[in-house]
Amino acid sequence: MKQYPSGWCVNVQMKSSLFIALGFSMVVIGLITLQGCSAPHMVVAGETCSVEAWQADHFTLQDVLPGRESNLRKQRVYVVLGPPAKGFNAPSEWMLAVDSVLIPLRVRAEENGSWQWSGTRNFYQRVRDGVMSLEEEHPVRSESSLPEAAFMIQHDENGCTAVELPLVLNLGVIAMP
Prior knowledge:
The chain has one helix and 13 strands; from the N terminus they run ββαβββββββββββ. By secondary structure, it is mainly beta. It has two domains: about 1-35, no CATH class; about 40-175, no CATH class. The strands form two sheets. Strands 3, 4, 5, 6, 7, 8, 9, 10, 11, 12 and 13 form an eleven-stranded mixed beta sheet that branches. Strand 3 and strand 4 form a beta hairpin.
């Protein structure tokens, strides 16, 4: 047992155990801090995208039934409305990652300063002979198992950035005349 000038008495074995526990605690705290500071990432179509925080004002979908008999069963229209965030670039390539597919998005500026992104996904069916058949377009697979969440992805010269979207609001089905 050794007594220090401050009045502490410490056993030599106890001292080494304290240093080991303190060192282990510091390593664990350091690892947790490093892990918490790193930006989250996700892999979409083989590319690693950084995930950033952004809040969309609206995220909706609406199914549109065609007015003519054809192999096109329905078109699903997705619309995202929100403020442009720092780093958003309208000429970039924009994609919607939803239901394990990537849907190309168009972007336009609204009069109030917000941006609107929109894209469509077609669903097809078999038809009898003589019925009009459109050329089928199928979306690219995202090659990742996305959770129930949807992500909007921006591709530009700096790589790709993803933002998580809120739960989608289904506006129902409309039929074309």
